[in-house]
């Protein structure tokens, strides 16, 4: 497991400080990146993962990628915000491997990390918190990726270190138990699925590859990840599609092909079933907000 975590890649998107009022009121926001905020003044509410959080001063909040969330400010609040992409392998997220809390009190000195990032990246702030002010802008992301790739060693290590430390604050404490062999093998399955989303992935073939019967494999997978293998594969394919819709100008047909769904009608139906909207509407309605 540690070997997998050592492969964690984090790419900064936005960082800044926002003063928000009642206009900060949006429903059903879903993004292919992680959001993290630290509230310095006032309060607001945030809903995701079937729970409502009251944003409080001196606390940090985590919103994982591909999670529906709603947020509302009834009066006024201020926050530092950060958004970033994370992956362990293409298509494999740290959220697949660890349990997270979504609200934690700020530790002593952590405010300096937020301040430092805003000082390092003054051009990464979000100017307008209204989603309607933003459109689908893959060119902006390409520029961010280019800037990230051209960082000097010192800046890269400092940025990655700060983001890793802040993300670590939300990881649930794990019981000190002996390593579970089956769990380790299933983590390997997640990596394999992530690396072969554009290919045929049948549950019986995965079970055979990892030397299990189909029933035993499916039962273990459900116990470990609270999701059946087929549903997991579909979900990861749609998440990959969401990322491609947000970050590229590929046609919908090209994206369907890249995630291993050759039948475009099936792709559209599955996308809407999982996200509640069509691929075209998802691309059109994407927003960038603090």
UniProtKB/TrEMBL annotation:
Coiled coil: none
GO MF, one example: DNA-binding transcription factor activity
Record-linked PROSITE patterns: HTH_ARAC_FAMILY_1, HTH_ARAC_FAMILY_2
InterPro entries recorded: AraC-bd (IPR003313), Homeodomain-like_sf (IPR009057), HTH_AraC (IPR018060), HTH_AraC-typ_CS (IPR018062), RmlC_Cupin_sf (IPR011051), Tscrpt_reg_AraC-type_HTH (IPR020449)
HTH araC/xylS-type domain location: 187-285
UniProt signal peptide: none
Transcription in keyword set: yes
Keyword field contains Protease: no
UniProt KW keywords: DNA-binding, Transcription, Transcription regulation
Pfam name, any one: AraC_binding
Family annotation (PANTHER family): ARAC-FAMILY TRANSCRIPTIONAL REGULATOR (PTHR43280), HTH-TYPE TRANSCRIPTIONAL ACTIVATOR RHAS (PTHR43280:SF28)
Protein name as catalogued: Transcriptional regulator, AraC family
